[in-house]
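#onboarding

Welcome to the new folks! Below is a worked example of what a typical request in this channel looks like: someone posts a single protein sequence, and someone else replies with the predicted structure as tokens. Don't worry about understanding the tokens yet, we'll cover that in week two.

Example request:
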Amino acid sequence: MAEDPSGQPAGSQSAGTRQITVRVADERDVEALARLRRAWTEERAGRPVSDAGFEAAFAQWARVEQPRRTFWLAEIGSDRAGWTPIGSINVVEIVPMPRPGTRAGKVGQVGNAFVLEAFADRGVPRALLQAVVDHARDRRYRRLILAPTARSTTFYRRAGFRPAGETLLVLEPGPE
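Example response:
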């Protein structure tokens, strides 16, 4: 892993004797990502959410999504003591249908960003988002899009995201 000017691995910052690092997640991280997703849900609900089949459903979903979705995992720890997941974010790669007279290119849809509350003010959300922005540049995405929560809108605006209009419509087709 490359080092930043302080001598720490790129994407890392110190938290006392422990480091916070951000890395691309892989299939070995599915359980950690599921735990973070459960924590996100329970934090918003303000209580534990009973769902015995959630972890298996998440693992199945992750297998299907893996070819088009990249996850990043923020962790705190050290190689000696081990690493504890504290946040994640993902981006779905979308390849829009070409149109005459327009520039072709991929779009990234950012989603499911979450950092444990104890680490939210330690630069972890910014580090996760920077990993996504770097990925978008490397993959030559035309743009990144997201649908932020009311609580996270200010964060994304400070990071350079801007409103893209009011054209999002939703339909929940349900049974007839």
